[in-house]
Amino acid sequence: MGRVDGMPFRAHPFNSTLETGIRALAILEAFYPRRCDLLEMTWLDHLVVHTGDLDGQDAPKSLHPDLPNRAGELAVRRQLVEKSLRLMQEVHLVDVFETEDGIAYGASEDAPAYLELLQSPYSLALKERAQWMALRFAGMATNEIRTVMESRIGRWTADFRLENKDGASP
Q: How sure is the predictor about 23, in pLDDT bands with cuts at 50, 70 and 90?
């Protein structure tokens, strides 16, 4: 199926910038008033769809399939999360803050009204998991969240010690 203008439609809807942006928005709204940096947002984006990776009987079932090697997704996910946060900023759903520690993101005042419009079963499950994660993580310091991530998916992946194409560390 192609677009109306005759150009083929090539965008993949899953893990697109828009889908990732909606996940980021659900997380930031659930964590409000806490602001999260890019590293935290990348971890939380992974966890909101893989809640089954966390210990505890109260952990909701994962939204996405539990594929082997999914921990490696984090290394690729960082750029996608960053692009999605910029997209959500452009449409005034995410606010960006300069802090002593760098850039942090927070849900804008328009975020709750937008998220309320999302009523598909997937969207409702996403928002429910984001709320569950906020109850578990919003009161934790970044280093405490890092400890959880390292225990679940390993230190290398939690740290994202990959080099950019120009050779610089992220």
A: very high
